[in-house]
Amino acid sequence: MLSAIFRPAVLLMNRLSYPMKFGMVTALFAIPLVTTNLQLIFERDQEIVVVERKLEGIQLIEALHPIVVNSELLRDISVVNLYQNVDLAGDRFDSIHSELKEQIFIFSNKDLANSNNLLKLSAQSLSWKMDSIRETPRSDATTSRFIFEHVNRYVKSEYDLQAQIINDYGLTADEDNLSLQLVTLLAGEMQKYSELMGMGRAFGSFYLTESFIDSSGINLLDATLSQLDESAGRLGKHVEVLLKAYPRFKDSVYIKPLAVSSLNEQIRLLEETVVLDPDLATDWDNYFQSSTKQYDIFNEFKLGVIQHLKYQYLEQLRIKRNEKTFYISSMAALSIIFAYLFVGFYMSIRTSLRQLVSATMNVAEGDLDKEIVLDTRDELRSLAIVFDSMRNQLKVREQQLFDMAITDELTGLHNRKYFNDALSQSVSSANRTGTPITLLVLDIDHFKVINDTYGHPAGDHCLKIVADVFSDCLGRGADVVARFGGEEFVVLLSAADRKGGEYMAEMICHRIRNLPVTYKDHDVSVTVSIGLATSAGDRAVTEEELLIKADKALYEAKESGRDRWVYSK
Amino acid sequence: MAIILLADVGVVVAAVSKEKADELGKSLTAYGAIHAGNANNTIPAWTGDGEPVVLMDEQPLFTITSTNKDEHRDYLNPGALAMFERYPDSFIMNIYPSHRTERSPDWVYENSKKNALETQLLGDGDEIKNVWGGIPFPIPNSGKEVIWNHRLRWRGIFLRTDFVSMAVYNKDKTALNKTSVEVAFPFYYRERGNKVEGYKLQYFLAINNYPPSQAGGSLLVYEGINARRTPRQAWAYSPGQRRVRRVPNAGYDAPLADSHGMRVADEVDLFNGVADRYDWTLKGKQEMYISYNNVRIKGDLTSIEDLVQNGHPNPAYLRYEKHRVWVLEAKLKSGMNHIYKTRVYYIDEDTWSIVYANLYDRREKLWRVSIAYLRHYPELPVTWAAMFVYHDLRKGAYFMQGNGDEKSGRIYFEKNLPGPNHFSPAALRRKSFR
Lengths: 569, 434
Hints:
The complex is a heterodimer.
Chain A: H1 2-14, H2 18-81, H3 90-111, H4 117-134, H5 144-168, H6 177-187, H7 189-210, H8 215-245, H9 247-250, H10 258-261, H11 263-275, H12 284-364, H13 379-406, H14 416-433, E1 438-444, H15 447-454, H16 456-473, E2 480-485, E3 488-493, H17 498-513, E4 517-519, E5 522-524, E6 528-534, H18 543-559, E7 565-567
Parallel strand pairs in A: 6-7
Antiparallel strand pairs in A: 1-3, 1-6, 2-3, 4-5
Chain B: H1 2-8, H2 18-22, E1 62-64, H3 78-86, E2 93-95, H4 106-118, E3 120-122, E4 127-129, H5 143-151, E5 158-170, E6 173-184, E7 200-210, E8 218-224, E9 233-238, E10 243-246, E11 278-291, E12 320-332, E13 342-348, E14 354-360, E15 366-377, E16 382-392, E17 397-403, E18 412-414, H6 425-433
Antiparallel strand pairs in B: 1-2, 3-4, 5-6, 5-17, 5-18, 6-7, 7-8, 8-9, 9-10, 11-12, 12-13, 13-14, 14-15, 15-16, 16-17
C-alpha cells in the first residue's frame, strides 16, 4: 500500500544520482525557507520605508509647530487690535507678522524641500495669505468674533497643512496604538483645545480693552468657556487614559503631565479675569501675557507629544532595522549550515560508496582477506557488514576447495601435488641456506596380498592406520607427510640430516611393525619399507635427484627383505 | 456709543422750583404725597406713625364682588375689573379702613427733599445725576421721573430674606420655588453722597433651595443706577454646569427661569431696569382701592396653602384699602421690541411702589394684571411688598412670589454693610462650590 503510493517518487528517485537526489530534496526544503526569509526581509524593508516616512512627517510637524504658535499669537493680537480701530499692539503685530513670514519662507523652502509639490504649494499659499491678514476689514459692524474667524482661517489652513502632512506621511496608519492615539489627539482634540485657548485669550483681552461685555459677548465667552471646559475635560481624560495605559508614555522624558493638570488654568484665568470681574479691571496685556503663559505650557506639552512621537518612530525604526539585520544574518547562517551539512552528507555517502565499491572490487579480484569496514553508522554500514560476511564465506569456501585440492581423500594426508610443491620449496630453501633435508619414501609391504586376502576395504583400513602413525610420528610443523600414490607415502623432513632421517625411519618401522591391525576379527600384519635420501648440504640437489635416490634406497630395502629402511648412498 | 456721547452733553431737565420744594414736609410729605386725607376722610392724613396695632383685629368695611363691582368702578382700575370678569365666582376684594403706614428713616426724607432741588435727568430721561439716597423726584414733572422714583425707592441698605414663589395653573397643578435672597442697596450707602458714578443701585444674590433639581443654583445681579450707561450685569451658577457664567440679556423682556413664563425680566418688582423702550406719560393722581397693610400675608406661602386656589390667591387673606395713586402709562416706542405694547402702572403716592401693573399685548388687549401686596415693616422701617402676584388672564394662571423669611415671614434688615467682596462673582463661585 505505502510502497504503491510512493512508487512514482521511488521511480523518480531511482533515475537520479545521489548528488541529484540530495540536491533536489534540499532544494525542496531550502527554497521555501529562503523565500520566506527573503519575504520577511523585504517586508521589514518596506516597513522601514514606511516608518522613515512617518519620521519625516513628524519632523515636518515639529517644524510647523512654532509657525502655528506664532500664527495663533498673531490671530489673537489681531482681535485685540480691533478695539476702536486703535492699534493697541501694532508693533507687536508687525514684529510677529514679519517673523512668521520668515518662518514660513524657511519652512516651505527648506523643510519641505523634499516633499511633494502639493505640500509645497500649500505652504507657499500660507505665505501669500499672510498679506491678507494685514488687510483685515474693519468697520463699526466688525465683531471680535469676525476678526478671530478671519485670521483663524489662516491658522486653520496651517492645521490643514498639518493634516495633509499627517495623511501624506501615513501617520494615521500605525500598528502601534499609542502612536495612533497621539496622532489622533494631535490632529483632533489638541488642535481644538488650542483654538479654544486662543478664543479665550483673544476674546478675554478684547473685552478687557472694551471694559464692557454686551450680551453677544457674554454668549461668546460662555460658549468659549463651555467648549474649553468640555475640551479640557475630554483632553484631560484622554491623556490620563493614555498615561495610565502606556507606562512608556508616562515615563517619556518629553511628556510633562503637569501640562494636563493645568489645562483648567486657562479656564480659571478667563473666568476670574473676565467673566467674574464686574469691573473688568485687569489690564488686557497682563491677561494676554498670562494667557500666553498657559498657551506656552500647553504648547510645550504639544511639542512633547510631537517629540515623543518622533522618539517612538525612531524606536520603531531601530527595532525594524535590527529585525532586518537579524533576518539577513539568520538566513545567511542557515544557508551556510545547510550547505555545510549538505556537502557533509554528500561526502559521507560518496566515501561510503567508494569504499564499498573498492572492497567489492577486491573481492571480485579474489582478495578475500581484506576486511570490509565503513566508518559510519548508517544503512551503508550494515550493507558493508553483509558484504564482509559474504567475503568471509567466500574465503572459507575457497580454503575448503584449496584443502580438497592438496589432501588425500582417504588418509587425510597431503596428496602428491601438494608434496611436489612442498618438496620443491624445501629443496630450493635447502639449497639456499645449506641446511640438509631428508626425504623418506615409504611403501607398505605386501599390500596386494592384504587387498587380495581381506578385500579393498581392509586395504583402505590399513592405509588409514598407517597414515595416522606417520602423522603421529612427525613432531615438527615444517615436516610434511603425503600419500604419494597406492600404498606409497613420502615424508619430507626439513632441516634433518641422515641421522635424523634414519632415526625417523627406524621409529616408523618399529611402530608399524608392532602395530595391532585388526580387520573383521582378522589380525593383519603390516610392515613398511623405507628408502631415505638426504640433500648433502655441500652441493645443490634437485627434487628428481632426491626422489630417485630415495626410490633406489626403497628398492634396495624391498630387495633385502622388506620391513626395513635403507639409506641411499 | 454715539447715544451715550450725545447724552453727556444733552439737555438738562430742570429740577422743581424752590417754592414748590418747600412744600415738602408741609402740604406734601417728604416723599411728595399729599399730606392731608380726602374730603370724606376715607383716606386719612399721613401721620408718620407707621403701623397701628389694630390691623389684625380689623374687619372689612365691605366686599366688592363681580355683582357689585360697578358701584365701585370709580376706584377700580381696568386690571381689577378684569379680574372680576375673568373669575366672577371667586374673585372678591375685601375693603378695609385705610392706614397710611408709610414710614422711612428721617435721613431718607431729608435726602428726598434735597433731591427735589438738585436731582436732574439727562438726555431723554434715562440717566440721572446729583441724586442723594432718597426719592429722586418727590414732585414729579414727567412719567420718567415717576418710574425713577419707583426704581430708587427706599428698601433699606442690606437685607436677607427668602423668596417663596409658586406658579398656580390650578389648585392641583402648582410649581413651588424657594430662594434665599440677599440684597444690598449701595445707592443708599451714606458715604455715596450724591455721586452716581462708581455706585450700583443694588446687588442682588439669590440661591435656589427648592425644587431639589435646581437647588444650589444661584443668580447674582449688579444693577447700575444709570442702568443704560452701566448695564445690568448678571452671573448665574447652575449645579449641572458647575460653573459661574455671565448671564446675557438679563433685562427687558428676557424670560426668567423660575417664573414659568408668567413674567419677564423687567417685571420683577413690577418694573425694573431701563425705561428707554417706552414713552412714559404721567396721567395724574386718583383715589383707588389697592392692596395695603397685608399683615396676614407672610413670606412663607407654603404654610398658607389656603392661599392657593384657582385663578388667584384666596381673597380672604388679602386686604385692600383706598389710597391715592399716580397713574402712569408706558407705550412701546416704534422700532422697539417688547412683548407688552402698553403698560399702565398705578403707583402708591406714599411709598412710590407700583401697586398695580396692567399689561397689554401687541393687539392692545389686556393680557396680564400684576399686583403688589404692600405691608409695613416697622423694624427698618419701610413699606414694601409682602407678595407680588402676576395674573395671566389668558392662561387663567398666576405666579405669586412671597417676600420674607420662610419660617418667620420676616425680612432681616441689616444695619451693617456686607464686606466689599460679599457680592463679587468670585464669592458666588466660592459659595456655590461649597
